[in-house]
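Quick note —
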Amino acid sequence: MTFSALNTLLAQATPSNQPAPPAGQGLEQLLKGPLPMLVLMVVVFYFILIRPQQKKTKEHEQLLKTLKPKDKVVTSGGVMGIVVSVQEKTVTIRSADTKLEVLKSAVAEITERAAGEA
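Predicted structure written out below.
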């Protein structure tokens, strides 16, 4: 090891004469740093992505609860038909001359309610 390398190591090992930072400075630096931006991003993601999806899911569940025979529906696959019967997990729809049994969750929207409803 050369003298200059040894001198460099000793210079790095000696403590500096700078005073220790005040106790409150660490929290102050944290609040000025990335923490507020991270919290803001989480809040924005919640209101832009998560909350609207939860609202949409609740509306779809409500739509499925109010499903009745003779409602005109469109499935998520694009099949249009009239509801013949509603079971616990499935719905039978008539499309042209065909009866199809699909999952309730496959019903995307009700295009027209049954004639007797207001």
